[in-house]
Amino acid sequence: MSILTQNEAFRNEPFVNFALEENKRAMEAAIAKVKAGLGRDYPLHIGAEKIVTEAKIKSINPGNVDEVIGYVSKADQTLAEQAMQTALATFETWKKVPAAERAEYLFKAAAIMRERKHEFSAMMVLEAGKNYAEADADTAEAIDFMEFYAREMLRLAATNERQPLTPVAGEDNKLTYIPLGVGIVIPPWNFPLAICVGMSTAAIVSGNTVLLKPASTTPVIAHMFVELMEEVGLPAGVLNFVPGSGAEVGDYLTTHPKTRFISFTGSKEIGLRISRLAADTAPGQIWIKRLVAEMGGKDGIVVDETADLDAAAQAIVASAFGFQGQKCSAGSRAFIVESVYDEVVEKVAELTKKIPSGLPEQNYAAGPVIDQGSYDKILGYIEIGKSEGRLIAGGGKAEGNGYYIQPTVFADVDGKARIMQEEIFGPVLALGKAKDWREAIDLYNDTEFGLTGAFFSKDESRIEEALQTMHCGNLYINRKCTGALVGAHPFGGFNMSGTDSKAGGYDYLLLFTQAKMTSRKL
């Protein structure tokens, strides 16, 4: 595998082809290695201290619920306060570290993760229920984020890349980007490495210190990242690992007067709660907290009668059921013009029925959903769907000693139905009929979310109009609505999908900095 250096232009980490026997064997060996180390205890990391607590988060394999991934120490408010004070003290030195030195930690970590990528992926196969390709893509994206943000910090720090200012005779004027302070990073469980790494390293390379509170269902893969940053020599206290309850630790840190920013990825409901809590000014607080929020989606695909219907059906199924529909970008609905509706519905049903379910470590296309709460919620929505549409595939539990649900499709669903409007976050797809392509776009736009979408057509004038009228942060033409690549598809949505922060884009690091203008009389 090639090792990028900071002198090379950024390029995306290539995905592994698991159709090749040697790659399949390598992943199987990595899974066996990770399984041999399951059931360990994992401490908190607060500065240089490794703290083991009596209270633990028990991480289990959603595909085999009898298998314990690990026991992760759980912070309380006292330990959260200790972590905050450590991060505050460390910030005073870390903010003075040159940008090139900060970036070098990311380059080193990316190189090591690239060498051990199957081990990181194997942990996600077991802890998150991802198949080989989904886990590999997650690891590749984590590598991409580190490579990309390191280069971005070097660009922002370079004198000739600063914002050009209008010259004034007799003055030397400069605009520089300085760090914010201590940030709380709250990543999701569905991309437990990529988004965790991306949010944390963007803040760190910008000169901030971080309190990382991982998702309670996937804390062990987050700890692997923390260990990696320790291995590359990141100074103690820059990245602090504080798993814990959202109600206890999350709320405490969000409302803390010394918290400068919160970087969150997760549900609309929790994102709005964080927004409300962060908006209140705590005693002793001297700034407005900055919130970078990536929230939910109710994404969809529009298909007109000129489209390649086979390609459209394949994209609908891939977007809906990749990683069991547990992506904020997942295409959980599709609107198809009536003249080709029946044909596309039939193709989607046929493709969906062919998706095999089983253990992620055996690389089945469909695995489990993440936990009991999600399992119960999704099955509940399937029951709602049976009264709102015509069931054409799936419709219930799937076999296995875990949280397995059949990939499920409902046809003839009204645009105002609950399964068309509410984020289910599971393998449930709703199909609706439109009289023409413009009505299909109107139906697509009728949502409180605005993250991803796709439009399938061969008509250039329609494509141009769709580009203007489909309201979402990431719009794709004649391809699936999942699979954004760092640098190529900066990712973030509108409306209730978040603050449109555009992760993996050229302005993302600005969210973790503040611009300081200096003017010197000559």
TrEMBL record:
Listed pathway(s): Amino-acid degradation; L-proline degradation into L-glutamate; L-glutamate from L-proline: step 2/2
Keyword Oxidoreductase attributed: yes
Pfam family, one: Aldedh
Aldehyde dehydrogenase domain sequence ranges: 55-517
UniProt-recorded Gene Ontology molecular function terms: L-glutamate gamma-semialdehyde dehydrogenase activity; proline dehydrogenase activity
Listed CDD domains: ALDH_PutA-P5CDH-RocA
Top class in the EC scheme: oxidoreductase
InterPro entries (UniProt xref): Ald_DH/histidinol_DH, Ald_DH_C, Ald_DH_CS_CYS, Ald_DH_N, Aldehyde_DH_dom, Proline_metab_enzyme, RocA
GO biological process: L-proline catabolic process to L-glutamate
EC number: 1.2.1.88
One GO term describing the cellular component: cytoplasmic side of plasma membrane
Keywords annotated in UniProt: NAD, Oxidoreductase
Recorded catalytic activity of this chain's protein: L-glutamate 5-semialdehyde + NAD(+) + H2O = L-glutamate + NADH + 2 H(+)
Family per record: Belongs to the aldehyde dehydrogenase family. RocA subfamily.
Protein name as catalogued: L-glutamate gamma-semialdehyde dehydrogenase
Species for this entry: Paenibacillus methanolicus
